[in-house]
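Researcher: Checking consistency across runs. Here is Charged multivesicular body protein 4c again:
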Amino acid sequence: MSKISKFFKGGGSAASKGRGGPSPQEALARLRETEEMLSKKQEYLETRIERELAAARQHGTKNKRAALQALKRKKRYEKQLSQIDGTLSTIEFQREALENSHTNTEVLKNMGYAAQAMKKVHENMDLNKIDDLMQDITEQQDVAQEISDAISNRAAFGEEFDE
C-alpha cells in the first residue's frame, strides 16, 4: 500500500484507532511524511521536464515528431507538477493549522493550571484580613517615617523647643 493510500484510508497504528483518532503529533508526522514524499516527486518531475526539454532541443528540426512527443510529455509532467504544488500548499496549510491548534490547546491547558494555582493561593486569604494588614503596614511606615524625620533633624542646641 502506498503512503498516500495509507494516509487517506487511515492505515495508522492500532493505538490511534482505539482512541478515536490520531494524536496531533501523529497527524503532524504523517503530514510531514506526505510533504516529504511530494517534494521528492516534485524533484523527480522537474528533472524529467528538463530531460524532455533537452530531448526536444536535440531533435529540433531534424526529427519534428520526436521533438513534439518530448514537448507533449514535458507538458504532462508540468501539469502533474502543478497539481503537486497545489496539493503541497494544501497540506502545508493543514499542517500549520494543526500546529496552531495544538499550540492553542497547550496554552489553554496551562492557563487552566495557572487559574487553579491562583485559586489555591487565594484560598486562605480573606479580604478583611488583607485590609487590616495593609492598614498596619501603612501605620508602621508612617511611624518609621516620623522616627526617620526626628533623627535626621538637626539638633538645635540652645534653641527652645515648643512642647
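Researcher: Does this match what you'd expect to see?
Model: One thing to look at in this run: Residues 11-17 have pLDDT under 50 and may be disordered.
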